[in-house]
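Input sequence (159 aa), recorded before submission:
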Amino acid sequence: MTRITRRLFYLLPAFFLLLVPAANAATTQTANGNFTTSATTISVHVLNGNTVIDQSLTIFTTGDISGSLVGSDIAVITSTGSGFLAGSGTFTGTILGRSGTVGIGFAGTFSPVTGQLNLQGAFLQGTGTGQLARISGTGTIQGIFNVGGTYTFTVTFHS
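Predicted structure, token format:
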């Protein structure tokens, strides 16, 4: 092999690496803060001994996730005294300094006696706008039913 051919042989792989598109980078961080809830009962039904409560709500958040979520939830108090809750809404504000809107879903349990709330939440993929367009993540939400509490989310921004 001539000296030029040898040099091209070694440089050719580096050249092809320049043609390969860069992988999508992702940044993952933890977001913590507090929330308060304002809820309005739309209807209450008793079905097979279970109480079903339909609510509209606004959740105000402070901390790493700062803004408001407007949505709805359904709470069920079973005939045995357990409480279950599921809902969703659209969040508008900033998450770790990035602004926009994104759908958030949540579900979990609460105590009908004490109001203690333990939920899991998730950003709904494909619902984000602005700087939240490619966000994903899940988290825990704890507090008192229809009052407020704390949250911790693992947040990933995809580029």
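Checked by second reader. Residues 24-158 form a domain with the AOC barrel-like fold (CATH 2.40.350.10).
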